[in-house]
Amino acid sequence: MSWDHVWIDVNIATMDPTNSAAYGAIADAALAVKDGKIAWIGQRKDLPEFDVFDIPVYRGKGGWLTPGLIDAHTHLVFAGSRANEFEMRLEGASYEDIARAGGGIISTVKACREADAAELFELGRQRLNALAKEGVTTVEIKSGYGLDTETEIKLLKVARELGKHHHVDVKTTFLGAHAIPPEFKDNVEGYVDLVINDMLPAVIEQGLADAADAFCENIAFNLDQTERVLTAAKDAGLEIKLHAEQLSNMGGSAMAAKLGAKSVDHIEYLDEAGVKALAASGTCATLLPGAFYFLRETQVPPIELLRQHQVPIVVASDFNPGSSPICSTLLMLNMACTLFRLTPEEALKGTTINAAKALGIEQNLGVLSEGMQADFCLWDITTPAQLAYSYGVNPCKEVIKNGQLVHQ
Ligand code: DI6
Ligand code: FE
Fold first, then answer.
1. C-alpha 141 to ligand 2 mean position (Å)
2. Closest residue (by CA) to atom 2 of ligand 1?
3. Which CATH superfamily is domain 69-358 in?
């Protein structure tokens, strides 16, 4: 056997759907890595013999391996803080009131237009470190706090640079249609034209985005405007996804599903017709419990319908300064269970196999099986449910990215 290294004394939550055990679990398991990929995985007793003097052996002390966590929805490149708006909300103002009064997303836009790339990079790097320490190995990062061509490009470049300089892989999403900038307050169609005819071509030309997103909501873009943006992005070769049904039911999810969206995100107000549309197109439903929690929302996403129609459920942090200033993918496992009543296994699927589907990387990531990329974590836990159950003492002991130990 010419492996690079071998793991023993571990249990493995493979999340492999072909393994019918909960979590696709293998007790008393072993795993071998070769050239950044999983070369062998199974029960320890079946591990082929190998030369222990030649191949390094890691011992997991009876802990659990899981796939590296994937956070499929973040806005982690931004400047400034919105703690003042948090205080305003505690005094009675709503998220929508603040947005309508020119605060909200627009206040972060002002801070991002003023910040230089180096400053944004450093802020992003610290946040990426925080996620990485808790086992995240792949993250999606959106623009959307520029709302002019120059600043949208700056944010996407910073996100791409973060991916090059950090072991965490970064998928980038162009979110020019996140909010209406003050310059276009009375000309939303004009802004949509700018997104489609100026920003999008620039983003495509420089190869800065893997996907495009928009915010379909009564405080942002209506259904027609959103459809125009997503159609243009799709025609330009990007994957598409959508912030939909967060504060009201606008029909955005069904429209995005028809266009072949990878995911629709938030979806507290999604109805059964919308759920059926997702099922028909294989679109994932991304739940963002951090935003639900932080905005003290009460409308719970239609979890039971998603289960009935077998829509892949994703769980992500939505980390951003306004609606989810919580930089922890791990905490989202807990919140998805406590706030949305997901099972811990569903929550873990939401940050592994299903998150990989939402990002279109499920051929290589999200499951531990032979031939998959060797991105995995060792956790000091006695059952995988512990990842969702408890929070505060970080159980992440080691992270392996592309077969290399990157965090201990
Ligand atoms: N929905 C969200 O949760 C974030 N964007 C969006 O469309 C919030 C962004 C913010 O408040 O800064
Ligand atoms: Fe978001």
1. 10
2. 323
3. Metal-dependent hydrolases (3.20.20.140)
- In this structure, which ligand is nearest to the CA of 215? 1
Smallest-distance ligand from the CA of 318: 2
Q: Which ligand is nearest to the CA of 316?
A: 2
- Tens digits of per-residue pLDDT, 78-120? 999 999 999 999 999 998 889 888 899 999 999 999 999 999 9
pLDDT per position as a tens digit, 182-204? 999 999 999 999 999 999 999 99
Q: What is the mean pLDDT of residues 275-295?
A: 98
By the CB criterion, residues less than 5 angstroms from ion ligand 2 are 318
Most informative mutation of 73, 145, 246, 323 for ligand 1 (most atoms within 8 A of CB)? 323
- Distance (angstroms) between ligand 1 centre and the Cα of 54 equals 51
Domain ranges of the chain: 5-67+368-407, 69-358
User: CATH topology for 5-67+368-407?
Assistant: Urease, subunit C; domain 1 (2.30.40)
**What is the 3-state secondary structure of the chain?**
CCCCEEEEEEEEECCCCCCCCHHHEEEEEEEEEECCEEEEEEEHHHCCCCCCCCCCEEEEEEEEEEECEEECCECCCCCCCCHHHHHHHHCCCCHHHHHHCCCCHHHHHHHHHHCCHHHHHHHHHHHHHHHHHCCEEEEEEECCCCCCHHHHHHHHHHHHHHHHHCCCEEEEEEEEECCCCHHHCCCHHHHHHHHHHHHHHHHHHCCCCCEEEEEECCCCECHHHHHHHHHHHHHCCCEEEEEECCCCCCCHHHHHHHCCCCEEEECCCCCHHHHHHHHHHCCEEEECHHHHHHCCCCCCCCHHHHHHCCCCEEECCCEECCCECCCCHHHHHHHHHHHHCCCHHHHHHHCCHHHHHHHCCCCCCCCCCCCCECCEEEECCCCCCHHHHCCCCCCEEEEEECCEEEEC
Ligand 1 binding pocket (C-beta < 6 A) is 104-105, 108, 178, 215, 243, 246, 291, 318, 320-323
